[in-house]
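RECORD TYPE: inverse folding
INPUT: C-alpha cells
STRUCTURE:
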C-alpha cells in the first residue's frame, strides 16, 4: 500500500493544537471542580442558616458584619444560582474542548497511521 505524503509542519501544528486542547480541558475541569466545591460550601451554609436563630453575620473581607437572616438567605440563594450557572458553563466548555480534542486525535491517528496492537 502506498503511504500518502505527510506534511511535517502541518502534523506538528496539529499535535501542538492537540496538546493545547488537552491543557485547556484540564484547566476547565479544575475550574469546574473548584466552582462545584464552592457551590457545596454555599449549600451547606444555606442549610446552617435555615437552622440558625438569633443574630446572623456575614464575612466581608476581614470583617464580620451583622445582617438579617432574610438578607443572608437572599444573598446565599443568588450566589448559589450564579455558581450553578458558572459550573454548567464550564462543563459545556470542557465538553466542547474534549470533543474537539477527540476529533483532532482521530485526525492525527489517520495521518500517522494507528499503531498495530
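DESIGNED SEQUENCE:
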Amino acid at each position: 500500500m502506498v503511504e500518502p505524503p505527510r506534511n511535517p509542519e502541518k502534523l506538528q501544528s496539529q499535535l501542538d493544537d492537540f496538546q493545547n486542547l488537552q491543557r485547556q480541558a484540564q484547566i476547565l475541569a479544575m475550574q469546574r471542580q473548584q466552582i462545584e466545591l464552592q457551590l457545596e460550601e454555599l449549600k451547606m451554609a444555606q442549610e446552617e442558616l435555615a437552622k440558625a436563630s438569633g443574630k446572623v453575620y456575614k464575612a466581608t473581607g476581614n470583617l464580620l458584619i451583622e445582617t438579617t437572616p432574610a438578607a443572608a438567605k437572599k444573598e446565599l440563594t443568588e450566589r448559589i444560582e450564579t455558581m450553578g450557572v458558572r459550573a454548567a458553563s464550564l462543563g459545556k466548555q470542557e465538553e466542547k474542548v474534549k470533543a474537539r480534542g477527540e476529533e483532532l486525535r482521530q485526525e492525527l491517528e489517520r495521518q500517522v497511521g494507528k499503531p498495530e496492537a
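NOTES: The first strand starts at residue 56 and ends at 60.
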